[in-house]
Structure formats: C-alpha cells, structure tokens
Amino acid sequence: MSIICHADISKSADFQLKYNFTIFKDRRLVFMTVSDTGDARYEVPVAKSSDTGDYQCTVKADKKTGSSDPVHVWVTGMTKPTLTADKRDVLEGEVVKLRCELPEEEPPLQFCFRKIKTNSTPRETCVPEPYTNFSVLEVSVEEGDNILQFDCFGRRNVKLEWEDSAHSNKTLVTVREPFIKPTLTTVPSSNVTEGDQIQFECSTVVVRMHDIEIILQKNKSILNSVQDKKLLRYSTVATLEDSGEYLCKVEQGGASKTTKLNVVVSELFPKPTLVASMTKLDKNKELILNCSINGFQKANFSIIRKNANGDIPLKNSQTLKMRVNVNDTGSYTCKAEVKGIVKESKPVRINVYAPVSKPTLSVAGGLPEVVLGKPLQLICHSVMGTPPKTFRFYKGDDVEKIVINDTYATFLDENIRLNDQRGYRCDARNNHSSGVKTSDILNVTVVVPVRDASLGSVPYGEVEDGSEIAFLCSVKEGSLPILFRFFKKTDNEVLLFEKIEHRDRAMWHKETMKRQDTGTYYCVASNRANVDVRSQPITISVILAAWKKGVVAALVLITIAGAGALALWWFLRKKKKAKGPSMEMSGSALAANLTSEKLARQPNDGDYYSGSGYIEDSENHMKSTDENKGPDLESAEVEYTEVEVSTLDPHRAPVQKGTETVYSEIRKANNDSMENRHSRISGHPDAT
C-alpha cells in the first residue's frame, strides 16, 4: 500500500525549490522526506489491520506551509491469534492458564477465550486489552470436565463496528479426577427405630491424600469432619429428629464431590401426656397431676415445674398430689424415658387463686366531691386476691362499667347533675370460689361554681371625709362556703379584706374614709370549685365634710374682711394727705418718693427714665364700699389740679433740667361723702 502526497505550487521555470513532506496517521508522525519534485510516497510493504486509520500530509516550501485533507484507509481482516496453555494434564479443581496473542496487531484489542466440552455449547469469556496485544486468562477445571478444548480470537473496533479475527488453534487439556465420588452408608441400613445406635460412614478413593477433607452434614449443620483421611464415621442414638437428608462432601483444592442419603427413624413411643385434676383452683385445694403414655406403660416418669432459670424436678413418679398455694401457679410438664430416649409432654398451666379483699371506692382527687360540669373519676381498689380481677362500677343500681385488671380499675362519670342523689359503689371478683366482694356506698358532693358576683356600697358614689362606708359583695349562685375578697384597683392589686361566709353575700365595714381612699373598688368570690368570679368595679369619691366646709368659709370671710380693713385704712390715709393746705410740694422730695415706689430704677450711667408711671388705689375695695351709692357715683364731676415739681435730684438725673407736671383727677360725688382719686405723673424732658 502506498500513501502519495502531491504538492501543486506555482513558480518560475528556472527557480529551484525544496519540498519538505510530512505524513501523519491518526495525527501521529509516520513518514518525513525532502524532495525536489512536488511528490512524496510512503510505502507500506505488507498492509495489516493496524494500518487502518486517517492519513494526512503537510508540505513546507520556502516558508510556506500547506496541509491536505485527511484520507481514511481501512485495511480489512486481522491476523490469526496463537493460543497456549501452561498445562495439558490437570486434576479437577486445578487452574489452567491460557495465553492468546496477536503479535502483528496493535492495541486496543479484545480477546475472547472459548471453553469447549463434548456435547455442550462452548463457554465464551472476553477480556479487553487497551494497551497490549495479548491476554492471559485462568480457567478453573470443574467436576465432570473430562476432556477440554480451548481456542481464542481477537476483536477490534473500527468506526464503531467490531471486526473479528480468525479463531486460533485448538488446545487440548486432559482432566483427571483427584478422588472419586464419596459413598455414604448407615449401619443398620434399614428399620432404624428410636433408641437404636446408628452409624454413618462416608468414604472415597483419592489420588493424593494431601489437603483432602470429608464432611458429614444434615440441614446445613456439620455433624462431623476429617482431614487427610479417606473414611469418616459418625455414631448417635437415633431419635425422631434424626430423620431427614444427610450429605457427605469431599473437598480437595478447588474440587468438590457430594453424595446424599435419606434416613427414616421409626418412633419407639409417643410423647407422654400430663393431665391435671383442675387447672383453676382455690388456694389450699388439692391438685393431682398424672403422666401417661398411650399404649405404653414401661417407662421412667418424672414431673417437672417449668421455670425461667431452669426446670424444677418435683417427683420421679407418674402421679403427683399436692396442696397448692398461690406461689404454685405456673406451667408443669412430665418426661418419660425408654431405652435412653427422653420425651417431654406439652406444658399444662395451673392457676391458683386467693380470694379478693373488700374493695375501696374513692375519688381520684381525694375529697368526695366534684365540680358541676366537670367529669368525676373514681378508683376501685382491691388489695388482696389473685389477678386478673373483674371490677364493676355502679351508680345507684345501674352498672356503669366493667373493667378487668390486676389490682384496681378507674371509672369516669361525665354525666354529673346537680340534684343527682344516687351513690356510687363497686365490686370485685376473680376465679376464686368465694364470689364477689362489694365496697361501701360513696356519696359525692356536687360543687356548684360561683356565678355573677356584684359589688355595692352604702353610701354609694360619694362619702364624706372621716365617715364610714359599707361594701356588700353578693353572688347569684354557688356552693357554700364562699370566700369573698375586696380589692382596690391600683397598679398593684391590693387586697383590703377577705371573709368566708356560709351565705351568698359578705359585708365589709370601713369606719373611717380618707381622701386617699378615693378610687375604684371590686370584689372576687370563689368556693371549692376554684373559679374566681370578679364583680364590676365601682368608683368611690371622698369629699370634704360639712363642718370642714364651714371652717374654710369662715377663714375665707375673715381673710376678706382683713383685706378690706387694710384697704380702707390705706384709702383714708391717702385721702388725708390729698386734702393738705398746699398742693405744692418740694420737687426733690416728691421725685424721690415716686421713684422709690413706682418707677423702675435707672442705671447709674447718666441715663434717665423716660415714660409715665401710674399710682392706683384699690378699686376692688372701693367698689365694695361704694356699692350702696347707686348712680350718683357715675355722675361725679372731674377736676384737674396742676402741680409744678422741680426735678432737682442730683442722683437720679444729673443732666436733666426742666419741670414735671403732676395731674390729679378728683371725682366728686354730689353728696361729697366719698372721693376716688387717681394720680398720674407725666415726665417731659423739654420741661414743657
């Protein structure tokens, strides 16, 4: 096969050019050459399947490179593989190592080995070899493989298709048995009966004694085994349980041969039967146990009591008589022995009963009472007596519930009515012949919860400081006694008074109320039902007492009278000064007086006060004094008198010069009995 690469290059006729050719197969370099012409040839003398692949060439000339398109070449067919075996003569259980090789092929390859037996379909095993052109396989020689033939063939994958080679030469392997199939026998061979001595023998013939083992087993349980021997013996006393299939197996290396034998053991005598005079009986009664075998009398009998810690022999006899106690309750069996064969009867359960004691009936909560609307749980308890016990609950004469338990039973009555007068009782019994024991009658009190609490007071709403008040808390219904509690509503609820009453109301007297007792009050009522019922709150205001109001009024009147007298004195004194012989005053004295009483003092920086000041009499007091004057006061005339005052105070206004004019307004009534005088002082800086 030739792979030819041709380069088509345009050049001048006399220009010499060197061509560098490179040929690749499956992107691997297989050929390189330098030529003066535009052709290169890669010669394959003998085409093989390994030459299958994608070929491509590259040409480089004068720094220019070009590549061809790939060409796929498929060389069909594969060379014939060769097969060799490391052994031509083997024993059963040994291993033959086979080698299949394709020396002229390249991996990845797959090798398939075939095991050919006479008159059977060849067994094929394939092994992939990604990196080598040969494969090795170990084949185990099994029992029955007398003459074996092996061959192999190769396989490769081309374009996702398998291509197989021709089959190799056949290799013949001769197989020999390392030992013969074992023989299993019994002595005696037939008519084996319980109690007979039976012996098993398993034997074989071997080529080599080394590493040989004989095993005897029944139902996958190994009974006996020997090594490096040709014979196995096993003896036992035959029982019914020894009937079944036995297996003798001989193993050496990987070889194994088996033989099976079925053994039937006849029954010598049936299992004994234990019979009790009674299975349920009272304490101190007599119990008779008898053990027997149907149709067989000559046997050694024993009566046994079963126990978790081991069987307890009671008597080596066919019959046992005993007076029982409660502790004798349990399971009993008997055993019979004939010719060394021991068989046991089925167990018999014996129950011994002590009589029940008189039961006690009580309420689960302790006290014989129940809250109306809540369920009532009763407990019936019987201390003595053998369980199980049957308890019956009665309400009146009606059976409400039947319970089977060991020591006690419970009953829940959810139908509680207020006027139900029927009592409760219970009875208990077991399998003792004494019969039923009945409890005493239990009467249960029905507690009615408190409902609709209300609070009132006398007096209601307002109470004078220092006087007493009475609070009354009452309920509509509820079982007695009732706990009444009185509270004042604050940030922290304060309990003021509590009292237990055997009636539906409670009174709380508070003798002295104070101003700090003003607030909101409420009461809470409860009884044995443990349900607190709260009333609506009421508000109590503590007001001032009447005699205290009189004292306050008197103090107010005295204060007003004192203030009036003081005002009258001031007014008369002022009036007396106004009626002097001369209205002219010393300027410095008047300025100093006015400045000290009415005008705000000026700072000592040479500034002076500018504005007007007012001197007013107490008009309120005068109005109260002149109320009886009527309209004459309204028609009074007004006179103005001008008074000139010299401003010569050197301390108040050192730079001021001029005069101040004082105006006096004088209202004269017609009857001349009162004058109301209002003085005004006006300052004029320009002395005008």
From TrEMBL:
Primary location group: other
UniProt cross-references to Pfam families, sorted A to Z: Ig_2
Lineage: Eukaryota, Metazoa, Chordata, Craniata, Vertebrata
Residues covered by region (Disordered): 601-688
Membrane topology: Single-pass type I membrane protein
UniProt cross-references to PANTHER family, sorted A to Z: IMMUNOGLOBULIN FC RECEPTOR (PTHR11481), PLATELET ENDOTHELIAL CELL ADHESION MOLECULE (PTHR11481:SF5)
Biased composition (Basic and acidic residues): 618-632, 665-678
Any GO MF annotation of the entry: transmembrane signaling receptor activity
Biological processes annotated in GO: cell surface receptor signaling pathway; cell-cell adhesion via plasma-membrane adhesion molecules; immune response
UniProt keyword list: Cell adhesion, Cell junction, Cell membrane, Disulfide bond, Glycoprotein, Immunoglobulin domain, Membrane, Phosphoprotein, Repeat, Signal, Transmembrane, Transmembrane helix
The encoding gene: PECAM1
GO CC annotations, alphabetized: anchoring junction; external side of plasma membrane; membrane raft
Classification via InterPro entries: Ig-like_dom (IPR007110), Ig-like_dom_sf (IPR036179), Ig-like_fold (IPR013783), Ig_Fc_receptor (IPR050488), Ig_sub (IPR003599), Ig_sub2 (IPR003598)
Domain of life: Eukaryota
UniProt name for this protein: Platelet endothelial cell adhesion molecule
Transmembrane segments: 551-572
Residue span, Ig-like domain: 182-264, 270-349, 359-443, 449-541
Protein location: Cell junction; Cell membrane; Membrane raft
